[in-house]
Amino acid sequence: MGRARDRKELNQMGITRVEGQQVDQDGSRSETVLVSGATGFMGGAVTRHLLSAGFSVRALSRSAERARGVISAWPGATKALAEGRLSFVSGDVTDPDTLPAAVEDVDLVIQAAQFPGAPVEDPKRGYTYANVDRDGTINLLEAIARVYGDPSNSRAPRFAYLSGAGVEPETSFPWVKAKLEAERACKASGLEWCIVRPSWAYGPGDRSLNRLLGYTRFLPFLPFFGDGEALVSPVFAEDVGRLLALVAAHPERAGGRTLALGGPAIVTLNSFLRTALEVTGRTRPILHIPLGLGRAQGAIMQYLPGRPLTPGAVDFVAHGAVGDLRALQEVFPEFSPLPIRAALSSYLGPPAGEEKT
Questions:
Q1: What are the residues facing 160 on neighbouring strands?
Q2: At a CB cut-off of 8 Å and minimum separation 6, what does 75 contact?
Q3: How far is CA 242 from the centre of its chain?
Q4: Extended beta strands in the chain, E state
Q5: What confidence score (pLDDT) does residue 158 get?
């Protein structure tokens, strides 16, 4: 009965069983996957889908105790704990000395760590793309080298990095530079690697879309920086997790590939925001704030308590990037991301009986 309930809850979250590799009779797999940022927005989705697919997961977090409290409440986690498929390790991708123990005896490392408050960087606290994406990835790779030596060592794990759409050399945004250097480190490591580049990922726990929608609870409009005409292919976070589970299950297909990931539709930011508003049941116009004014606001607000906004965060939110699915679906033809409206409705729909406002 408990297992049936777990399956129902997982299906409601968009989590399904992944086929591939050797699966034991009880549905478990022999491989152990280390996930950095396992309690975060993206890393959490990855962790849930790996557990659902039967993998053993070692959750890397700055606090193993806190990670246990968070992850244990997720559907399927109790069963995974009972089966010995879920463990926790304290470590920080920005602290190299905490990582060697974390990477020991694992088959795959997935770097999905994000800094708190992203995309609002806070250099004084070390919360930057350079520290977490670039240096965090390099630190994990160096920890693997310390533990396993030569990357051709048959015991050395594979490595997957969760990057971002639009990571191209000619782009000067700091998050792009950091992710590009992290990608280069993966490719130069000598390990078997895979890079996934998602477009704007959204879902429960997303700070960008959910924060914007939160303003409409008390404002008669939705504020947005720029003209909103940039193109994106928004992807549901659970689809990101589902793809990483496929990458883990099919190393023969994923190895040595950079996979762009987007949702099934390419839309403008305005269209995406209007759809989200419709799903919430709120009727609001979008108020476009010129980028220059937004950056000026960020330059002031970055010194306020809690650092609510920075000029870089303004650019991040307004910047478009498309994840073209064609190459990905040649590698994983079974992968089909959830349509935008259906995904948004799974967690943003108004309670039954609530009227539009």
A1: 110, 194
A2: 6, 9, 10, 13, 15, 48
A3: 11
A4: 32-36, 56-61, 86-90, 108-111, 158-162, 193-198, 201-202, 222-225, 231-232, 235-236, 257-261, 267-268, 286-289
A5: 98
Whole-structure pTM value: 0.90
| CATH number for the domain running over 202-235+263-322+332-357 | 3.90.25.10
Contact call for residues 265 and 340 (beta carbons, < 8 A): yes
User: Would you list the domain boundaries of the chain?
Assistant: 202-235+263-322+332-357
Is the pLDDT reported for residue 53 higher than 90?
yes
Q: Are the C-beta atoms of 234 and 202 separated by less than 8 Å?
A: yes
Could you give the CA distance from residue 263 to residue 269 in angstroms, rounded to a whole number? 13
pLDDT in tens, 194-228: 999 999 999 998 988 999 999 999 999 999 999 99
- State the Rg of the chain over Cα: 20
Quote the distance between the C-alpha of residue 128 and its chain's center: 16
267-276: pLDDT as tens digits: 999 999 999 9
What are the structure tokens assigned to 31, written together? 């491989």
